[in-house]
Design goal:
The structure is a homodimer of 439-residue chains.
Chain A lengths: L1 E2 L2 H6 L15 E3 L4 H14 L3 E4 L16 E4 L6 E4 L4 E4 L5 H9 L3 E2 L12 H7 L6 H4 L6 E7 L5 E5 L11 H5 L8 E8 L1 E2 L5 E7 L2 H14 L4 E6 H11 L9 E7 L5 H15 L4 E5 L2 H12 L1 H6 L4 E3 L9 H15 L2 E7 L4 E7 L5 H20 L18 H20 L12
Parallel strand pairs in A: 2-4, 3-4
Antiparallel strand pairs in A: 1-2, 5-6, 6-10, 7-11, 8-9, 8-10, 12-14, 12-15, 13-14, 13-17, 16-18, 17-18
Helix pairs in contact in A: 7-9, 7-12, 12-13
C-alpha cells in the first residue's frame, strides 16, 4: 500500500494545474478499504504528518498538488459500485471515474447527470470533493445536488456515515453537504450515495454562429429567459478555429461566437424547445443557425465543444480559468476578458457553460518566455478580479485549490474567511488535511 | 421592537408541536432589519442570553418552543422580496410565508417548488431552517436544492453573506448548505437567495384506492420504478374516512389506502405518464382507479390529501410523526406502524409523501387521559425506533427540534453526534443559539 519509489512519486507530484511549486511527497498510499484510509489518517494525525488526498489527478486548481513531507493518499483503488433501481441510488467508492459511474448505472436504465468535460478521466470522489459541474448543470444542477450521503474519514481517522439513500432527511445538521466541495480539507470521502434519474430522453440540438459577442450573449439570455435548456455551451472565435483546425467539421471560421444548445424535453417537445432556441438565436442576429434531431450529429457538436480545451492547448500551455457571473453580467464578463487580453497582449480564448454563467477563459502562454508568462498570470488574476467586481465567483466548478486561494478572501470577505477557518480548525485542529488548499 | 407584555409573550410560547415543557421567554424581539438582528444577537452574546429564533411558529418538532430566560427572536417583520427573471432567482427575507413567495414569483411566470402542506401559513425562513419538504419533492427536491445563497447572523452578531445568485459556485466551503436545516442552532437567517423554475405545466392526476396496504405500496414502487411523478401521496383508511366525514367527496370508505399521483410532463406527456401510473395501480390490485386532466378536479384530491391532518385532528390531539425510509422498506414501515398501533392500543393514521418514502403517522390521543397519553408517546418513540431499524430517518422534513432529539443519536451514532457538537461549539461557543434544539 505504501510506495516510496521516486519515479512513482514523481507521477503523483502534480494534478492538471501543473503547479510549479509542487513538492515531493514523503510517500504515496493507495488504500483499498475504508479501514486502511482510517489507519493511514490515524497514523498521520498522531505524527502530525500532512495528507494530500488525490482522486484521478485531473484537478485544475492544484488541490492535489503534492507537498514536501506530506503523504499523498490516492483513492484510485477504491472502486466498488452497487446500484439500487428501486430507490434509484448508487453507492460508489471514490476511485471510480465519473464515466464508469455513468456506464454502470446506464446498464440499469438510469442516469447520473453531472458531466464535467473531463468525465472520461476524472474520479467521482474528486467530483464530490470539488462539487464539480459540467455541461448539463444548467438544467440538472451540480454534484452536491446528487449526493445523498457519504462515508468520510475525519482528521483523527474516525470514519463516519452521513445521510443515506433517502430523498428527504432532516435529521441533524446538513453535514453531507458540508463535505461536498470541501476539497479534502475537512475529511477524505471513502463512499458516496448518489441520487440517480431515469435515463435522459433523446435531445434536439441547435447550433448557431454569431457575428459579434454581444449577439451571442443576447441569444443566451433570450434562451434562458424562455426555458431551461439541457445544455447551452459557448465557444469564441479562437476556440472555433482551434477546433476546426483539428476536426475539420466545417465550422464558420469568421464567427465571433458559436452556441450549442440542447433540449431533452420528452418526445416532440424537445423539438418545440429547440425551435424556440433557434428563433432566439436568429432574432439575436445569428449568421447561421440550425436544428438537428439526429443524436449523433448533435453529439458531434457537443464533442467539438468538449474538444475546445485540448484544441486551444495545441497553441501553447494554458492557464485555465473558471470564473462565473450572474447571467445578466455575462456580456460584461466576456467583453472585459477581451479587454484584459488586449491590455496584457496575451491570447485568451473564452469557452463557457453559458447557460449558468460559468466561463472558462483559456490563457495561452509560453512558460519559457518569462515576460509573456508574467503577463498571462497577471491576466489570470485580473479575470478573477473582474468576475468578483461583477458579483461573480472565482470558481464555478473547479474549486479553489492552491492556485486560486489568494483571491478567495476578495470574493467572500474577511468574515466568511474567519467562519471558514473556524470550521476548518474545529474539524482538523492540527491542519493535516490538504494543508495549503483553499485556506 | 422589544415586547415583554405577558399576553403577547404567551402567544409566542409554543409552535405547533405544543411542547408541554415550553418556558416563558424574557422578551420577544421582532427586528425589521438585519442590523437589528445583529444588534440583538450581539447583546445576547455579550450577556450570554439564549435566543430562540422563530418564523411563523408552525414547526412540528418544537424547534421554536420558548425557553425560560431566553429571547424569542421572531423574523415575522422581515418581509422584503425581489425577483430577478433573468437569473431566475428571488431574494427574500425570512418572514414571508412560503405561499407569499410562490405568489410573488408566479406574477413573473416563475415557480418556487418546495410546498410543505402548511405552505399557506409557514415562513420561508422556517422552511430553510428546517430544510422543509412537501408534496412535489419526489420530483423537485427539498428546500436546500433551491437555496443558492443567504445572509445569516452568526452567534456573535456578525452578519455574513454566503453564496449568491450563481447556479455554480465552488469558491470555499459549502457554508450555505450547512446553515440550511440547522434549525437556528448555528445562525439566524435574515435573507435567502432562491433558485426558481419556469411555471409548472398543467398536471394530470391519477386517484386510486386499494383493498390492502400491500397493494398500495406495490403500486408506489411500480410507479417510482417507472418514472418520476410530480406528486405521489398516500392516505390510509383512517385518513380517508376522516377526510370523507368533512368533505363528502365520495371517497371509498372501504379502501385500505388511497393514492394521489400526478405528472407535470409537458403537453400530452402528462397524460402518457398518468396512464403508466394508472396501469401500475390497476396491476397492483386497485379497486378503483381513474385519471383526470382537469386541473380543478386534480387539485381537489390534492387538497383532500392536505386536509388529512386537520381532518384526523378532529378525532383528538395528534402526535405528528415524520419518519422516512428508503422506498423498498415502505411496506415494512407501514405494516410495522399498524403493529405498534395494535400493541399500544392507540389510533394511528398514516399519510405519506409516498414517492420519497416520507410518512406522517398521526397518533391520536387524549392528553387528559394519562394512560392513553403515555401509550401514545411510547408509540411515537417506537415508530422512530422502527424507522431507524429499517435504515430510515426520524425526520424527513420537520426537523429534530426538541421533540425528537432523544432519538437523533440512535439514528446517526455517537461519532456523528460528536462531529455535530464540534461544529456547534465552534460556531456558537456560548451555546446561545436555540439551546436545547437538535442537541
Amino acid at each position: 500500500m505504501v510506495v516510496t519509489d521516486p519515479d512513482i512519486l514523481g507521477a503523483y507530484r502534480q494534478d492538471r494545474a501543473f503547479d510549479p511549486a509542487a513538492g515531493t511527497a514523503l510517500a504515496l498510499v493507495r488504500p483499498t478499504t475504508t479501514a486502511q484510509v482510517s489507519a493511514v489518517v490515524r497514523w498521520a494525525h498522531e505524527h502530525r504528518v500532512p495528507i494530500v488526498p488525490r482522486g484521478a489527478g485531473t484537478g485544475l486548481s492544484g488541490g492535489s498538488t503534492a507537498q514536501h513531507g506530506a503523504l499523498v493518499l490516492s483513492t484510485e483503488k477504491l472502486r466498488d459500485i452497487s446500484v439500487d433501481t428501486v430507490t434509484r441510488t448508487a453507492v460508489v467508492q471514490p476511485g471510480l471515474l465519473n464515466a464508469e459511474v455513468k456506464r454502470a448505472v446506464a446498464e440499469h436504465g438510469l442516469w447520473y447527470p453531472p458531466d464535467p468535460s473531463s468525465f472520461e478521466i476524472c474520479s467521482i470522489g474528486g467530483n464530490a470533493a470539488t462539487n464539480a459541474g459540467g455541461l448539463c448543470c444548467v438544467k440538472y444542477g451540480v454534484t452536491t445536488d446528487y449526493v445523498l450521503g457519504m462515508e468520510v474519514v475525519l482528521a483523527d481517522g474516525t470514519a463516519v456515515r452521513l445521510g443515506g439513500p433517502r430523498l428527504k432527511d432532516a435529521a441533524g445538521l446538513s453535514l453531507t453537504k458540508l463535505f461536498v466541495g470541501s476539497e479534502g480539507t475537512l475529511g477524505i470521502i471513502t463512499e458516496l450515495t448518489l441520487r440517480l434519474l431515469p435515463a435522459q430522453p433523446p435531445q434536439s440540438t441547435v447550433v448557431a454562429t454569431f457575428p459579434t459577442l454581444t449577439a451571442a450573449t443576447d441569444a443566451i439570455l433570450a434562451i434562458t429567459g424562455a426555458l431551461r435548456p439541457s445544455m447551452l455551451e459557448f465557444m469564441d472565435s479562437v476556440a472555433i478555429n482551434a477546433v476546426e483546425d483539428e476536426l475539420r467539421m466545417g465550422l464558420d471560421r469568421e464567427a465571433a461566437g458559436l452556441l450549442v444548445a440542447r433540449s431533452d424535453a420528452p418526445g416532440e417537445h424537445a423539438g418545440y424547445e429547440a425551435d424556440i432556441m433557434l428563433a432566439a438565436c436568429e432574432k439575436a442576429g445569428a449568421t447561421e443557425a440550425f436544428r438537428t434531431d439526429d443524436e449523433e450529429e448533435g453529439e458531434a457538436f457537443c464533442a467539438a465543444r468538449r474538444f475546445a480545451i485540448p484544441a486551444v492547448e495545441r497553441k501553447g500551455p494554458l492557464l485555465l480559468e473558471d470564473v462565473g457571473v450572474p447571467l445578466p453580467r455575462l456580456g460584461d464578463l466576456v467583453n472585459g476578458i477581451a479587454e484584459i487580453a488586449r491590455h496584457r497582449a496575451v491570447l485568451i480564448s473564452v469557452i463557457a457553460h453559458a447557460g449558468d454563467g460559468n466561463t472558462h477563459p483559456l490563457i495561452v502562454h509560453d512558460p519559457n518566455n518569462p515576460d509573456e508568462s508574467e503577463r498571462a498570470h497577471l491576466a489570470f488574476g485580473e479575470i478573477m478580479d473582474l468576475a468578483i467586481s461583477l458579483g461573480g465567483t472565482i470558481t464555478g466548478e473547479h474549486g479553489v485549490g492552491r492556485l486560486k486561494k489568494a483571491w478567495l478572501p476578495d470574493q467572500v470577505g474577511p468574515d466568511v474567511m474567519a467562519l471558514t477557518r473556524t470550521i476548518k480548525n474545529a474539524l482538523d485542529p492540527h491542519g493535516i488535511l490538504n494543508p495549503g488548499a483553499v485556506l
